[in-house]
Amino acid sequence: KEAKNKMPTYKGLEQFKLVEKMGDGAFSNVYKAIDLRTNQKVAVKVVRKFELSASQRANILKEVQIMRGINHPSIVKLLSFSESQEHYFLVLELMEGGELFHQIVKLTYLSENLARHVILQVAQGIRYLHEERGVVHRDIKPENLLFERIPVLPSQNPVSKQFEEDKEDEGEFVPGVGGGGIGRVKIADFGLSKVVWDEQTMTPCGTVGYTAPEIVKDERYSKSVDMWALGCVLYTLLCGFPPFYDESINVLTEKVARGYYTFLSPWWDPISSSAKDLIAHLLCVDPAQRYSIDEFLNHPWCKAQPAPPPPPT
Ligand code: ADP
Ligand code: MG
pLDDT tens digits, residue range 60-70? Predict the structure, then answer.
């Protein structure tokens, strides 16, 4: 309650009433806000210009440029963009449920059916970016995957265990006791994203004829960074901890470089071999061998239907 009185005001943002802080990064704060002209609830990402280098400023403008061209249910929409002398303002579709990270990863893990429900939404967003927009996100992680509504997890609400059997529920959030569901998940934060393919021709950007082989290869493999990250997210959803972790950053770096991870017992014992097979094709060190988004979506684990409800007794 107190925080509400302490909301900052920004010159150039008079159209919006800031309600609460939803997140902060190195150079930005994200607020829940109300557009006073429409009464619409939105999120506003406020970026401090003066702390940015020229190339970082250019990156914000690139983030805006890329987001403007994007329209998909699994991707957070940019509603408008403006700037003042001191700030950039990105007005975004509000994701009230906050980070996947906060809602799930720290609390618990998901059943395979629920994990599939979440990861397929993320994967559809990635498929759209990779195949239709020629965009690589490059920063897929639980902090950048946001819930449209506060999800009701089976672990927190026994009633919503129903959800797992409810094939009708395609991500609809049903508020109140007796309802359940995990709702829509969307990809946010295009701060590191990059256009790698020309949208019309589906060829690498720039003049190919004079491009060095390492650049051409780089562009070809750049999509695969999102697939690695997708594998890390899926692994984490299924067991509640990440595939690569060490207290020492040097050891961690070495583990990642070698692709050294395990399906740790007892956590992974009950998880299907199909899920493990899929993860193994994503957490694959050689980017040429790693699954593409279409290979991911065509894997049997992604195609599997949730188990039918048990017969009445
Ligand atoms: P950064 O580049 O600083 O990581 P992000 O765009 O990822 O910036 O935003 C930082 C955090 O703010 C996110 O991790 C999330 O918690 C929150 N956030 C960002 N966009 C939204 C949104 N549209 N709705 C709700 N929260 C958001
Ligand atoms: Mg982020």
Answer: 999 999 999 99
Q: Which of 1-15, 86-100, 289-303 has the lowest mean pLDDT?
A: 1-15
Phi-psi region of 176 (alpha: psi -120 to 50; beta: other; left: phi over 0): left
Lowest mean pLDDT among 88-97, 150-159, 178-187, 228-237: 150-159
At 156 the pLDDT is 52
Catalytic residues: 139
Interval between CA 143 and ligand 2 midpoint (Å):
6
Query: Which of 290, 285, 297 lies closest to 224 in space, CA to CA?
Result: 290
Ordered DSSP codes for 122-183: HHHHHHIIIIII-EE----SGGGEEESS--B-TTT-GGGGHHHH-TT-SS----STT--B--
Ligand 1 within 6 A of CB of 91: no
Ligand 1 within 6 A of CB of 103: no
